[in-house]
UniProtKB/TrEMBL annotation:
Subcellular location: Cytoplasm, Cytoskeleton, Cilium basal body
InterPro entries: Beta-prop_WDR19_1st, TPR_IF140/IFT172/WDR19, WD40/YVTN_repeat-like_dom_sf, WD40_repeat_dom_sf, WDR19/dyf-2, WDR19_WD40_rpt, Znf_IFT121-like
GO biological process, one term: cilium assembly
IF140/IFT172/WDR19 TPR domain ranges (all copies): 445-812
Domain WDR19 first beta-propeller: 2-125
Protein name: Anaphase-promoting complex subunit 4 WD40 domain-containing protein
Length: 1103
């Protein structure tokens, strides 16, 4: 094999020895060779450089040997003649045997030019065989007619399972046609019409004036294309006939199509015409730019697709007379509309190799358009599309059989029914709604539906997305009566503003385009639209545009727009600002002469300052009330008289500082000092007072007011030089100059003074320099002053060493040292052993001398050891009680009780019960004084029941109890208590003046029964119990007592002391406050108006 164009060396193709010798070979296709071998093999090989010698297929059709072969490339067939007396036909693409013909002795095979006939030299002579039928077929939207033999036409539906009808013909037809009710066939200028029925009878014969090149049928009319004219006539009805076009200027008809309502045809001069079959006249005519080659109508006739001479496909809409381009292949040979399109119109354009699907949308935000769907579908070799239904295309091939193939876009939906992209590409929105589950899918569906103005689907999707804004916008678009306005609103929702503008301008309300551009702040385009749509809005838009330009710093353009918008509100202000920014100061200031806007004056002052027009800027700042800014500008201009004039209105320190420096340079020190003070520069003020004016008192005053360390150092040096070391050291400590103060004290021998000053400073603000405190502590430790050393160590946080030194000082009688030791031990939370040391010292474990136990209580409370604090408080109170110091014991327990509650603890029962007993005694004395004998008797009876806890005054208390019970009429209680007094342990201690009376009570004995004690409900369980009972026998709760009456509290008459927050019976407390103005528990003054009845007692029932 030799490539002639390249001049390469010949290439030898070698084959398997079993094939035998090459008997014949022939080229076919694009660089392929078919070879026949003597052993009966048929082999196809490629000669392409990358696959040279590669076998496409190999057959052995004639095992007895192969004599000859021939190829019909157009028919995709190869014929071989074998020694077995047979001719076999093979498919070149499929590589398989299709048909076997008996021809004894056949050789020298020859094909006809169309590949339908093959001749061979046989033993009996020349034999001619029909290899395949002529490719004669036609279809409409619902059925197809094909030539199944030389004289028979079969009609079938798209599923082509069984033929609907078979028609026998008298001649071999060159063309056929099929309609809803008829099938026609013919040759040359004759046509035979048969009704579609089982009998398929012939109903009409028509002879035309010239040869028929194409015939189209509907249910009652036939249209034949003859010599560039279309002959239209009825098939069976009353004869009606017409020839179109009538005007020769319309050219020759090149293609036509017929529907139930109209005939559509195209001509070689670009005329697309519609002939109405009901009115029997031409009703519409459109002229294209070039000749039309193919015309295809949708079943309804509402859309016409055509292919022009430039190989471009368009869709013509008769209703709107609009033409929409279709992005079809330049090699397009045919167009088919889908007869079952679904929700959107669908068509395919095809050539001999592939078919491309296109969906057509009449209404969308950009109007009507056609869009390609999926990738092209490859067609089988030699197969030609006849019809399209639901994405399935019917094909007719050289073998005379009908095949079908699914387009790629529809096949994708069949493969993946839930593929949202595939469904949207076909505009199947109802199915897409079911497939959209996730939010991104719903959003995609909503936007696609909105783009195609499928408002119902878009609304459903946006509602599911809960996008209220889009729902309202889509509803407004759907409700718009004008189609173009509706499209514009939909495009606006999608953010496609140019498309929206185009649609609005075509609508009945073109001003919507202006409104949109204004809302988008696209002022240049808005001004262009306003010039033609609403000239009266130009000034307002120009002002808004100017404001935007001014904001972005394009001041020259903004000035031009402000001038264009003259007359609008705020334009004068904009003109002034832009004039100043553009350097036209005179014009800008003239525009500001009559303004009263403070904000505008401030803006313009800033503009002038940035442009270095300082005098003008200062003037405007002063007019605007910006006195500080004006003063700063005058300072920069060194206009000191004007600065002095403005200073009373200026608070900015930097202005006063600059003015002070100027006055200092002029030697006017007093004015400079005042300015320095106002400016917050006390160092400079003190420097002038000490060095220039010699006024140390004023310098000290400034230091005390400002506590400036540097100023303090200056004054301290001055005072030290003047011999006032105490004042100098005090000033240094007070201003926080600790290191300087320590060094000064060390040099001056005033360490004790420094210690006192540091201690006072630490006590006043709670902080002091640790390093200096430690130095002072070491100094005093070296001086054998254990108290001061320990005290300063405590202030410095050295608790362990501090406690040791403080206990050492306390051991020699220093009272304050023990208190400071308690504070140090309490502060050392993480060192509990220090607290133990202090407690042992207080208890006398170290030296055998007990100290003040209140310090132990304070220590426990400070450290948060509440339980231990309560125990100590009870022990202290017990000791005081034994000694007869009942008020001191009461106050100790009250303080402990309040401290425990303040720290979130609950006072133990021992503390509460002892406090109640002591308070009952104190309260009884109060009521005796007030003459409330019954109340005093009840309280003294409670105390007498625990008389062992009052050993120091047992006999006086019992005596008072007997007397008060007698006064209150509690005879049995008085007798019982008098009997106790007559016992040997108490009788010798009776007061003589009460002895006879007591004996009389005992001698009289019990005569009248005592009235029972009144009851009141328990505040916990509401069980009635005696008023003075403090424990409920039913719920077993200890009850809080009233601080005014000693009774247990009740729910419906409950109050609190506003100071100690102890409970009380509101009525009893109020009655007590009528004669006493203090709380009987804490001693604080209480006004009756300060009491309030509480309803929620849960927090106080444990008090």
């Amino acid at each position: 094999m030799l490539r002639v164009s390249e001049g390469d060396e010949p290439v030898e193709l070698a084959f398997q020895p079993r094939y035998g010798q090459v008997a014949a070979y022939e080229w076919f296709g694009d660089g392929y060779i078919l070879l026949g071998f003597t052993a009966g093999f048929l082999v196809a090989v490629s000669t392409h450089p990358k696959e040279i010698g590669h076998e496409l297929f190999q057959l052995q059709p004639h095992p007895s040997g192969l004599k000859h072969m021939a190829i019909a490339a157009d028919a995709d067939l190869a014929a071989t003649a074998g020694a077995d007396g047979q001719i076999k036909l093979h498919s070149l693409t499929a590589g398989e045997t299709k048909r076997v013909l008996n021809a004894p002795g056949a050789t020298n095979l020859t094909w006809s030019s169309d590949g339908q006939l093959i001749s061979a030299s046989c033993t009996a002579g020349i034999a001619v065989f029909l290899a395949c039928l002529p490719t004669v077929a036609a279809a409409d939207s619902s059925r197809a007619a094909i030539l199944t033999s030389l004289s028979e036409v079969s009609v079938t539906e798209p599923n082509f399972q069984e033929p609907l009808s078979s028609v026998r013909l008298v001649v071999e037809p060159s063309w056929v046609a099929v309609g809803p009710a008829h099938v026609a066939a013919g040759m040359n200028n004759r046509a035979w019409f048969h009704r579609l029925s089982l009998s398929a009878e012939e109903v009409a014969t028509k002879e035309y004036l010239s040869r028929v090149s194409c015939l189209k049928l509907n249910s009652r009319v036939a249209a034949a294309l003859c010599a560039g004219r279309v002959h239209v006539h009825t098939i069976e009805d009353v004869a009606a006939e017409a020839v179109v076009p009538e005007d020769e200027s319309d050219g020759r008809v090149t293609a036509h199509e017929i529907t139930n309502e109209a005939l559509v045809y195209g001509t070689d001069v670009g005329v697309l015409a519609i002939f109405h079959l009901q009115q029997w006249r031409l009703v519409q005519r459109y002229r294209h730019s070039c000749a039309l080659k193919i015309v295809s109508t949708e079943a309804s006739g509402s859309r016409v697709a055509f292919l022009d001479d430039h190989h471009q496909v368009f869709i013509f809409c008769p209703l709107t007379e609009s033409v929409i381009a279709v992005d079809a292949s330049p090699s397009t040979e045919g167009i088919l509309w889908d007869s079952w399109p679904g929700e959107a119109a669908f068509l395919v354009t095809f050539d001999s190799q592939q078919a491309s699907g296109h969906v057509f949308l009449r209404d969308s935000v950009r109007g009507s358009y056609a869009e390609a769907v999926a990738s092209p579908t490859k067609l089988p070799n030699g197969q030609r599309p006849l019809w399209l239904a639901g994405g399935e295309m019917g094909l007719h091939g050289p073998d005379g059989r009908l095949n079908r193939i699914m387009l790629e876009g529809h096949a994708a939906v069949l493969r993946l029914p839930d593929s949202l992209d595939a469904l949207l590409s076909l505009r199947r929105y109802k199915e897409a709604w079911s497939a959209a589950v996730e939010r991104p899918q719903l959003k995609k569906l909503a936007e696609a539906a909105l783009y195609d103005m499928e408002f119902e689907v878009a609304l459903r999707a946006f509602r599911r997305l809960k996008d209220a804004g889009m729902v309202r916008a889509v509803e407004a678009a759907a409700e718009a009566e004008d189609r173009f306005e509706s499209a514009g609103m939909a495009a606006l929702c999608l953010g496609q503003y140019d498309i929206a503008e185009h649609a609005f301008l075509q609508s009945d309300r073109p001003s919507a385009a202006l409104e949109m551009r204004s809302s988008l702040l696209e002022w240049p385009r808005a001004l262009e639209l306003a010039a033609s749509l609403a000239p009266d809005q130009v000034p307002l838009l120009a002002k808004q545009f100017a404001q935007q330009l001014e904001f972005t710093g394009e001041h020259a353009q903004a000035l031009a727009q402000y001038e264009r918008a003259s007359g609008q509100v705020d334009c004068r202000a904009g003109l002034a600002r832009c004039a100043l920014r553009c350097g036209d100061v005179r014009r800008g200031l003239s525009l500001l002469d009559e303004t009263a806007s403070v904000d505008l004056l401030r803006e313009c002052a800033t503009i002038l300052e940035s442009g270095r027009h300082l005098p003008e800027a200062a003037s405007l700042a002063e007019r605007a009330g910006l006195y500080e800014r004006a003063a700063e500008l005058h300072v920069r201009l060194k206009n000191w008289p004007k600065v002095a004039q403005l200073l009373p209105r200026v608070t900015a320190p930097r202005v006063h500082a600059q003015f002070a420096k100027a006055k200092e340079a002029e030697g006017r020190y007093a004015e400079a000092v005042a300015a320095y003070v106002t400016a917050g520069d006390p160092e400079a003020a003190v420097r002038l007072l000490l060095e220039k004016l010699r006024r140390p008192e004023e310098a000290v005053k400034i230091v005390k007011e400002t506590r400036n360390p540097e100023a303090a150092k200056q004054v301290a040096r001055f005072l030290r030089s003047a011999g006032d070391a105490t004042s100098a050291l005090q000033l240094l400590v007070w201003c926080g100059c600790a290191s300087e103060a320590f060094e000064f004290a060390r040099q001056a021998g005033e360490m004790a003074l420094l210690g006192r000053l540091l201690a006072a400073e630490a006590a006043s603000d709670g902080a002091a320099p640790i390093a200096q405190l430690l130095e002072v502590a070491r100094h005093f430790e070296a001086e054998q002053d254990a108290f001061l050393a320990g005290k300063f160590l405590h202030l410095a946080g050295e608790s362990q060493r501090a406690v040791q030194l403080l206990l050492k000082a306390a051991a020699v009688g220093h009272k304050e040292a023990l208190e400071v030791a308690v504070e140090a031990a309490a502060a050392a939370q993480h060192e509990p052993h220090l607290a133990d040391q202090v407690i042992q010292f207080i208890c006398g474990d170290l030296d055998g001398v007990p100290k003040d136990f209140s310090l132990v209580l304070r220590l426990y409370l400070t450290r948060g050891q509440l339980e231990e604090a309560a125990q100590v408080a009870v022990l202290m109170a017990e000791e005081e009680q034994k000694a007869g110091n009942y008020r001191a014991a009461h106050d100790t327990l009250l303080t402990a009780h309040q401290q425990l509650r303040a720290r979130g603890g609950s006072p133990p029962e021992a503390l509460r019960s002892r406090l109640a007993l002591l308070h009952s005694y104190i309260l009884a004395r109060l009521h005796v004084r007030r003459g409330q004998h019954l109340m005093a008797a009840r309280l003294l009876s409670r105390v007498a029941a625990n008389i062992s806890k009052f050993p120091a005054h047992a006999v006086p208390i019992l005596t008072s109890a007997v007397i008060e019970c007698g006064r209150a009429g509690l005879a049995s209680t008085s007798f019982r208590l008098a009997s106790m007094l007559m016992r040997p342990m108490h009788r010798p201690h009776l007061d003589p003046k009460y002895k006879r009376k007591i004996e009389s009570v005992v001698r009289k004995g019990l005569r009248d029964p005592e009235a029972p004690e009144p009851t009141s409900p328990c505040p916990h369980c509401l069980q009635p119990l005696p008023e003075y009972e403090l424990a409920c026998s039913r719920c077993k709760n200890n009850l809080p007592f009233c601080i005014a009456t000693g009774k247990h509290v009740v729910r419906d008459d409950f109050t609190l002391c506003p100071h100690c927050e102890f409970p009380a019976i509101a009525s009893g407390f109020s009655e007590l406050l009528e004669t006493e103005n203090v709380c009987p528990m804490c001693g604080a003054e209480v006004e009756t108006a300060a009491l309030s009845t509480l309803e929620d007692l849960s927090e106080y029932l444990k008090v």
